[in-house]
């Protein structure tokens, strides 16, 4: 797999506090990578290091296969970002703002109409930014980030503070970019539901550590059904099953089965009954992605 971003043991300390701890991010080409974690988990700090805005305490960053420390300027020329509130002149129109930025970047003039169209602001091209909704301002920020045709777009909590229609508009835009513009998108959020709706890959960060990284499909798989067994003398029953080589989990007097076919469940019940345990309940338990995320990040930020 080709990775657009790869970090190796990326670490940031502030005094004694470790904000980001030995992170090994792998962001595959052409995906929308959702960087998910509770507030204070270290997302912004990580993104700032990826953009060369903050120097890592240790570890390294590779973007487009090149070392950020060595090739900073040429790498960042191909990266677009929206990590803080976008900066613009509110007394100018969106077109004029983009024109000012375009001149700095040296992009061709046609780019302006193209990015306005892409973020659905063509109709507001000649309107002053001071009358814009927050969602429109955010989209103008993204339009600015797209002026130099980036191969990687980094967005820090882009839907924060937007109203429902602004959120939907932003999500659709993020989903379109990889397909229409051959772009890889890295988006951070503290809301699983946000990431779930746009991302194809997920990295979960908690207290500075990456605790999960895989496709959203793999994350969903983790959320699949579990079979719960409530039996008499559960701890001993669990040991009996283990001794017979049956894979289970045991927690709070409940046995959880891995094998979920009808036959496997029937076989387990038969063993338990044979061995003299009473089987009180055999139930399916459905874990939502939210449950999994909350379990992964349980404990809050108590570094
Ligand atoms: N400049 C700084 N100086 C000292 N500590 C900092 C600095 N920036 C961030 N931190 C600390 O590093 C930790 C991670 O912060 P960071 O902003 O990266 O988290 P986050 O996941 O982006 O959360 P949020 O969504 O709330 O911004 C926090 O404990 C924060 O207090």
Automatic annotation (TrEMBL):
Protein name: ABC transporter domain-containing protein
Domain ABC transporter residues, every copy: 5-232
Keyword terms, alphabetized: ATP-binding, Nucleotide-binding, Transport
GO terms of molecular function: ATP binding; ATP hydrolysis activity
Organism of this sequence: Saccharococcus caldoxylosilyticus
Matches recorded under InterPro entries: AAA+_ATPase, ABC_transporter-like_ATP-bd, ABC_transporter-like_CS, P-loop_NTPase
Similarity field: Belongs to the ABC transporter superfamily.
The keyword Transport belongs to this UniProt entry's keyword annotation: yes
Highest taxon listed in the record's lineage: Bacteria
One Pfam family it belongs to: ABC_tran
């Amino acid at each position: 797999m080709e990775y657009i971003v790869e970090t190796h043991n990326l670490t940031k300390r502030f005094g004694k506090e470790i904000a980001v701890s030995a992170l090994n991010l792998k962001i595959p080409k052409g995906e929308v990578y959702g960087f998910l974690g509770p507030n204070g988990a270290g997302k912004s700090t990580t993104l700032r290091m990826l953009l060369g805005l903050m120097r890592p305490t240790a570890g390294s960053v590779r973007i487009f296969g090149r070392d950020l420390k060595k090739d900073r300027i040429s790498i960042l020329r191909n990266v677009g970002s929206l990590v803080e509130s976008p900066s613009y002149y509110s007394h100018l129109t969106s077109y004029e703002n983009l024109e000012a930025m375009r001149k700095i970047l040296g992009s061709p003039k046609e780019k302006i109409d193209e990015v306005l169209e892409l973020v659905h602001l063509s109709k507001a091209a000649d309107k002053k930014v001071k009358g814009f909704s927050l969602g429109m301002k955010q989209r103008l920020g993204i339009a600015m980030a797209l002026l130099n045709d980036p191969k990687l777009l980094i967005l820090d909590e882009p839907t924060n503070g937007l109203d429902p229609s602004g959120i939907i508009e932003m999500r659709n835009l993020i989903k379109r970019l990889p397909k229409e513009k051959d772009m890889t998108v890295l988006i951070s959020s503290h809301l699983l539901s946000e990431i779930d709706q746009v991302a194809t890959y997920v990295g979960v960060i908690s207290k500075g550590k990456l605790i999960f990284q895989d496709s959203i499909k793999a994350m969903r798989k983790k959320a699949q059904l579990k079979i719960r067994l409530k039996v008499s003398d559960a701890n001993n029953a669990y040991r009996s099953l283990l001794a017979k080589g049956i894979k289970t989990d045991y927690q709070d007097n409940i046995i959880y089965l891995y094998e979920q076919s009808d036959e496997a469940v029937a076989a387990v019940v038969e063993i338990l009954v044979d061995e003299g345990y009473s089987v009180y309940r055999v139930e399916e338990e459905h874990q939502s992605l939210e449950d999994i995320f909350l379990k992964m990040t349980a404990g809050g930020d108590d570094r």
